[in-house]
Specification:
Aldehyde Dehydrogenase, Chain A, domain 2; 2 domains; 40% helix; Aldehyde Dehydrogenase, Chain A, domain 1; globular; binds nicotinamide-adenine-dinucleotide; alpha/beta; six-stranded mixed β-sheet; 22 strands
């Protein structure tokens, strides 16, 4: 069974905790056990973070940054190892895992810019003989609760920026994919960070609840499904914490009649079926405007049927397994529901369910409408809904009907259509001729509507603002 990191010590949780298996989703075999930590384990981690805070928050910035550079160098050294850990217990292809590790390391690169990012502002002679200076201070003990689908990247969205700003941190990794965070914490210690700056508590709801209500936790970063994001936001905010809670998605890809199918078709496949659809930036509904449907559907059907499904560590595989058997069955249930509600099954990936492991192949449903369950609920699997719109206006209307507003993207050769889309679509991450509109580490990850609860998003200067509080000093001599 894997252990928690409390201060300097890898420790088993208090007696009597239960555990869950961690699987290799490509084989269905158990590879480890993860403990379901409880209140006393969370208390121990918070106490370690509280003890470490005075020393760490007063450690010179350049020392904190030197350690962050060392962490970055070690992450590069362990790049392939981290990618294979992701594939082994998440299932995505090795290529996708490498992309994930790279995007995660980019947040560490960004954190290394702390001497610039943490600067305040000054204004002299505001009134006669009076100067005003703004300084940034850490907020205290912070906690991070990531989802299962990016076991390395999403923890790296959280703790590097927090600790470089002088905070101490408690990470509660996903109980389904905790091994990436586990390895990150080992590497973090190897980089030389002092004990208690980063602590790891494994578990699920009970551990989360203990963090949400803990009086010594000042700020909390959450990424996961929409209902849990809302719950986390409400619960943690009601005990006075800062919260950033990123939720689920139902992303639309609009394809205009002037779009080049040679660009749009591979982009839709990548967006819908990459990471087996288990991405908050996955394109879930392709909306063909006007005659775009005629040029898209056949090539999409042909190409989706040819995607190679299999274990993510095998060369040539393009679509790996889903995270668990019950999640795969839930996704298959959406396909059944789509057909029952009137959608046309164009590609059926359910044949792959016969294999060992938790597989479901790429699936396409045509003539989906927003009223159908598959037209508005997040599926989080390799199921593409194909919808039709008469005009761009109609397509934007379909996207904006969603309760969630994480990402939307358009394929077109018209600057005017692209601009119209950019102005009117209600999605915090908007793409123009790109399959996945993922902001780099120096911009905020910026979902809207039910995809986000809070004010300051993760990473970018929002991340710095989230993990610091400002003090203004007014001086007269
Ligand atoms: P999830 O909500 O089930 O779990 C997320 C985290 O919350 C986990 O650490 C889990 O232990 C904890 N948790 C789960 N249920 C809880 C409960 N009832 N009370 C308290 N804590 C609870 O999400 P998941 O299935 O791990 O991840 C997939 C979801 O995350 C999808 O909806 C996806 O869109 C979303 N996601 C969003 C973003 C984003 O940036 N907006 C990024 C990645 C994933």
């Amino acid at each position: 069974m894997i252990r928690n990191l409390i201060g300097a010590e890898w420790r088993s949780p208090a007696d009597g905790v239960s555990s869950l298996p961690i699987f290799n989703p490509a084989t269905g075999q158990e590879i480890e056990q993860v403990p379901l930590s409880r209140q006393p384990d969370v208390d121990a981690a918070v106490n370690a973070a509280v003890r470490a805070f005075p020393g760490w928050s007063r450690t010179a910035l350049m020392e904190r940054v030197r350690l962050m550079f060392r962490f970055k160098a070690l992450l590069e050294e362990h790049f392939e190892e981290l990618a294979s850990i992701i594939t082994r217990h998440h299932g995505k292809t090795l290529e996708e895992s490498r992309g994930e590790v790279r995007r995660g390391i980019e947040v560490v690169d960004f954190a290394c810019g702390a001497p610039t990012l943490l600067q305040g502002r000054t204004l002299r002679d505001v009134s006669g003989g009076v100067d005003q200076d703004l300084y940034r201070y850490p907020v205290g003990v912070c906690a991070g609760i990531p989802p299962f689908n990016f076991p390395v990247m999403i923890p790296l969205w959280m703790f590097p920026l927090s600790v470089v700003a002088g905070n101490t941190f408690i990470l509660k990794p996903s109980e389904r994919t905790p091994l990436g965070a586990q390895r990150l914490a080992e590497i973090f210690l190897e980089a030389g960070f002092p004990d208690g700056v980063l602590n790891v508590v494994h578990g699920a709801r009970e551990a989360v609840d203990a963090l949400l209500r803990h009086p010594s936790v000042a700020a909390l970063s959450f990424v996961g499904s929409a209902p849990v994001a809302k719950y986390v936001y409400q619960t943690a905010a009601s005990s006075g914490k800062r919260v950033q809670a990123l939720g689920g998605a139902k992303n639309h890809i609009v394809v205009m009649p002037d779009a080049d199918p040679e660009i749009a078709v591979p982009a839709i496949l990548n967006s819908a079926f990459g990471n087996a659809g288990e991405r908050c930036l996955a394109g879930s509904v392709a909306v063909a405007v006007g005659r775009a449907a005629d040029t898209l559907l056949d090539p999409l059907r042909d190409a989706a049927s040819k995607l190679v499904v299999g274990p993510g560590d095998q060369p040539g595989v393009q679509v790996g397994p889903l995270i668990r058997a019950d999640h795969r069955d839930k996704v298959a249930g959406y396909v059944d529901k789509g057909v029952a509600e009137g959608a046309e099954l164009v590609v059926d990936g359910r044949g792959e369910m016969k294999r060992a492991g938790f597989f479901l192949g790429p699936t396409i449903l045509d003539r989906v409408t927003a009223e159908m369950t598959v037209g508005h609920e997040e599926i989080f699997g390799p199921v593409l809904s194909f919808a039709r719109a008469a005009t761009l206006d109609d397509a934007i209307g379909q996207a904006n009907q969603m309760a969630l507003g994480n990402m939307a993207t358009i394929f077109t050769q018209s600057g005017r259509a692209a601009r119209e889309f950019r102005e009117r679509v209600e999605a915090g991450m908007t793409g123009i001729n790109v399959p996945i509109a993922q902001p780099f580490a120096f911009f905020p990850f910026s979902g809207w509507k039910g995809s986000f609860y809070g004010d300051l998003h993760v990473h970018g200067t929002d991340g710095i603002d989230f993990y610091t509080r400002k003090k203004v000093v007014v001086t007269r001599w």
